[in-house]
Amino acid sequence: MPNIPYRDELDTEAEALAERIRARRGGVLLNLDRMLLHHPYLTAGWTELFLRIRAGQHISDRHRELGILAVGSLTGARYELHHHKAPFLAGGGTEEQYAAVVDSVPAAIANADLFDAAERAILTLALESTRDVALSPETVGAVRSHFPEPAQFLELLMSIASYNFAARILVGLGIEIEAETP
């Protein structure tokens, strides 16, 4: 059950933003949107940030989504896991990889049969960033060996950090997966 109600009645400011969100989402608002629309000013900034993160320019969708899934698993953000499965699979990830990350990020990091070195570096980056905030020199070195351009490293780290932010909102507000909403 959510910690505050989903917003369905929208004033003029919220409705204008909701229309832009609906246009991007094929005519629907997700529960996340319905919750965020309690504060249209902040939601406008949130929407812009996540549009830019998801558009990416320097890393693949598969790599970005792998980091996002790791964050969802580590933080218990089921909503994040649910909504990022399809983009991960569409980007070239596998059902087996998805299941392994959801089950245990540390075990996934150790699984060289299922994840290549670049993927394991991303998972380690997500683990350290989520749990410890600080990154070890070994992790930075491993990530940089596969993503040598500064923009690549920054995009990976910003994706992971942004979805840690999202996870804290999703879990903190108790946002439900749409199929589970009464």
UniProtKB/TrEMBL annotation:
It holds the Pfam family CMD. Residues 41-105 form the Carboxymuconolactone decarboxylase-like domain. InterPro entries: AhpD-like (IPR029032), CMD-like (IPR003779). Signal peptide: none annotated. Transmembrane segments: none annotated. PANTHER family: 4-CARBOXYMUCONOLACTONE DECARBOXYLASE FAMILY PROTEIN (AFU_ORTHOLOGUE AFUA_6G11590). This is Carboxymuconolactone decarboxylase family protein. It comes from Phenylobacterium conjunctum.
